[in-house]
Design goal:
InterPro entries: Bact_response_regulator, CheY-like_superfamily, Sig_transdc_resp-reg_receiver. This is Response regulatory domain-containing protein. By secondary structure, the chain is α/β, with parallel strands linked by helices. It is built from five helices and five strands; from the N terminus they run E-H-E-H-E-H-E-H-E-H. The chain has a five-stranded parallel β-sheet with strand order 2-1-3-4-5, with helices on both faces. Helix 2 packs parallel to helix 3.
Length: about 130
């Protein structure tokens, strides 16, 4: 059973992501704050982090950079999520890539697309229990 971590400050959106991941057979941990995500990721060693861009205390790209800089979480799959639109989407996508995100998706989330991306990432990355 894959372990996932959802980092999303909007309660409704967080609950939707948790529900979708649980229906896909994942064990899900969720937090609303970027700063809370880092110690939890160290403790639960998720296979996938679904990470909102705009978070209180520590924005998504910085959370991603810190995950990548820590040996226990350096190889976790990261799916960055944002509600940004217009011309800023491409800038956000590029920044997410520079921060180390593996994929990027826009809100509002379309459940089938979200789950397809999640399953693809989970296939591409070894489970945390198989990582050093």
């Amino acid at each position: 059973m894959p372990v996932t971590l959802v980092v999303e400050d909007d309660a409704d959106h967080r609950n939707l992501l948790v529900l979708l991941l649980e229906r896909a057979g994942c064990r899900v941990h969720a937090v609303a704050d970027g700063a809370d995500a880092l110690p939890l990721a160290q403790r639960v060693r998720p296979d996938l982090v679904v990470l909102d861009w705009r978070l209180p205390n520590l924005p998504g790209p910085e959370v991603c950079r810190r995950l990548r800089a820590t040996p226990k979480t350096a190889e976790v799959a990261v799916l960055m999520v944002t509600a940004w639109g217009g011309d800023s989407v491409e800038n956000a996508r590029q920044e997410a890539c520079r921060a180390g995100a593996d994929d990027f998706i826009l809100k509002p989330i379309h459940p089938q697309e979200f789950l397809a991306r999640v399953l693809t990432l989970l296939k591409r990355f070894p489970p945390a229990r198989d990582r050093p």
